[in-house]
Amino acid sequence: MAVIALCSASGSPGVTTSAIGLAMCWSRPVLLVEADPSGSSGILAGFFGGTHEYEAGLVELSYSPLEISDALRDVVRPLAGNVSFIAGTRSHTQAVGLRDLWGRLSTALENLESTGQDVIVDAGRLGLPGSPEALISLSDLTLLVSRTHLPALMGARSWAEQLKGAASSWQQPGMLLVGEGQPYNAREVTKVLGLSVIASISDDAASAAVYHRAASPHRKFATSPFIRSLRAAAGAIQQTIARRRDDLVREVTS
Ligand SMILES: Nc1ncnc2c1ncn2[C@@H]1O[C@H](COP(=O)(O)OP(=O)(O)OP(=O)(O)O)[C@@H](O)[C@H]1O
Ligand SMILES: [Mg+2]
Questions:
Q1: Which residues are 31's β-sheet partners?
Q2: Nearest 5°: CA angle at 83, between 80 and 86?
Q3: All domains of the chain in start order, with CATH
Q4: Atom of ligand 1 nearest to the CA of 20
Q5: pTM value?
Q6: What is the strand order of the sheet 118-125 is part of?
Q7: CA of 75 to the centre of ligand 2 (A)
Q8: 3-state secondary structure of 165
Q9: Which of 188, 196, 198, 248 could serve as 184's disulfide partner, Cβ 3.0–4.6 Å?
């Protein structure tokens, strides 16, 4: 049971699509939290194609007089199968008002462990006003999502420097590549940025559009490189978290 945050440094590499895709391919029940401060509504407008009304989300959670774990239950909505979600803000101005929510939410999400759920957070672009910083740094694994071309790597470089530094508050940073080999591969990206590449998602525009904007799935969607890479990435993420937990236990007990 773990909290995994996805974020980006620049461009729109596919954070939201990958977060939704990972949740859809997750092997256990999973809660998707739309914490992107831009208010872009990747789930209601994107995944559901505007067919579902906004009912409640992070704003209602923030202002609820209830204990956060009780309030959480009131704002979670079903997405599909074993996946549920909390809708994000509907404008970038609302996100700034959630400053006090992220730390409390992080604690409540950790407590979801008892319900057997993992959590995937779409944290949007780093450094924006309203960025869910406490949630990002307290996650078990935070994945910087990036394409592998030079402008994307340049955009990621300053964040990578900061994350590698001793002052970084992130528990465990890693990279999730979209379109590995276009042109650089995982080994080259790790060498340049100094962050481990945990997994790669195939560059597959037609399949990605299904989760990004409710496009109709094509005939081979279920066996597409996109879906296969998401399944592999979900497995690699779970293994990475399990390994780190084992290491921490060994450290404490040795
Ligand atoms: N694996 C992929 N292969 C091909 N295209 C993709 C992939 N993932 C996402 N895309 C496409 O990239 C574009 C941006 O995707 P998405 O909105 O998920 O990115 P983002 O990083 O969340 O952007 P933003 O910073 O605006 O929130 C969309 O057109 C989407 O369909
Ligand atoms: Mg997004």
A1: 84, 119
A2: 105
A3: 3-7+9-253 (3.40.50.300)
A4: 18
A5: 0.96
A6: 77-80, 83-86, 30-34, 118-125, 3-8, 141-146, 173-178, 197-201
A7: 20
A8: coil
A9: 188
DSSP state of 215: P
Task: Indicate if ligand 1 lies below 6 Å from the C-beta of 209.
Answer: yes
Q: Which pair of tokens denotes residue 95?
A: 């996100």
Name residues whose C-beta falls within 8 Å of residue 193's C-beta, 6 or more positions apart in sequence: 153, 156, 157, 160, 175
- Whether 204 lines ligand 1, by a CB cut-off of 6 Å, is yes
Is 123 touching ligand 1 by the criterion CB < 6 Å?
no
Cβ–ligand 1 distance for 226 under 6 Å, the answer yes
SS3 at position 240:
helix
3-state secondary structure of 58: helix
51 pLDDT higher than 90: yes
Q: Which atom of ligand 1 is nearest to the CA of 13?
A: 21
Task: State how far the Cα of 107 lies from the Cα of 99, in Å rounded to an integer.
Answer: 15
- Spatial neighbors of 191 by CB under 8 A, at least 6 apart, are none
* Torsion angles phi and psi, residue 48, rounded to 5: -90, 0
Q: Which residues contact 124 (CB under 8 A, 6 or more apart)?
A: 7, 8, 15, 35, 36, 37, 38, 40, 131
Write the pLDDT tens digit of every residue in 145-176.
999 999 999 999 999 998 887 678 888 999 99
Distance CA 82, CA 65 (A): 28
Whether 211 is in the pocket of ligand 1, judged by its Cβ within 6 Å, is: no
Query: Residue 33 corresponds to which amino acid?
Result: V
